[in-house]
Design goal:
It is a single chain. The chain is mainly α and 148 residues long. Helices cover 50% and strands 8% of the residues. The protein is built from five helices and four strands. The strands form two sheets. It has a two-stranded antiparallel ribbon with strand order 1-4. Strands 2-3 form a two-stranded antiparallel ribbon. Strand 2 and strand 3 form a beta hairpin. The chain is globular and about 45 Å long. The relative contact order is 0.17.
């Protein structure tokens, strides 16, 4: 699978390089980012207060570093509310796309390593393989902000 889709992976790297140049010209505002702000890291308490856990990848970066995790069918609604609250942040499509590609390539690397080198049990290998298949091939229509 990886060899068959090698060109899409390499193209994703080339696209990231072009996007990085665009982003550097704009110099986006840096904010505190979580680094893995997916829904699994959100928790609610009994009073319905929302908490974001697992801050191991926190750092300064463009807001898009976290925002791309909320892509999908509800992205437009989410961004409308986000930008209403965070008036100081302008969401950039190239920056959003850069972080999506970065995450996709990171997932390919991580799950490839787990599948072929680290996991000991068949169940672990199977899980890693299924996760890997979600990211390969890397194509534009899998990236919500690039859909036409």
């Amino acid at each position: 699978m990886l060899n068959d889709n090698r060109e899409t992976i390499l193209e994703a790297q080339r696209i990231m390089a072009r996007l990085r140049l665009q982003i550097r010209k704009v110099r986006p505002k840096l904010v505190l980012t979580h680094g893995d702000a997916n829904l699994a890291n959100f928790m609610k308490d009994k009073q319905d207060r929302l908490y974001l856990t697992d801050w191991g990848d926190a750092g300064l970066g463009p807001a898009e570093r976290d925002l791309f995790h909320f892509s999908g069918n509800q992205l437009g609604t989410f961004l409308k509310h986000y930008t209403r609250i965070r008036k100081d942040v302008e969401v950039s499509t190239p920056t959003f796309a850069f972080y999506y590609y970065r995450w996709a390539l990171q997932e390919i690397s991580d799950y490839s390593t787990r599948t072929f080198y680290l996991n000991r049990t068949v169940a672990e290998k199977r899980h890693s393989w299924e996760e890997l298949k979600r990211w390969v091939p890397v194509i534009n229509h899998t990236i919500p902000c690039l859909r036409t």
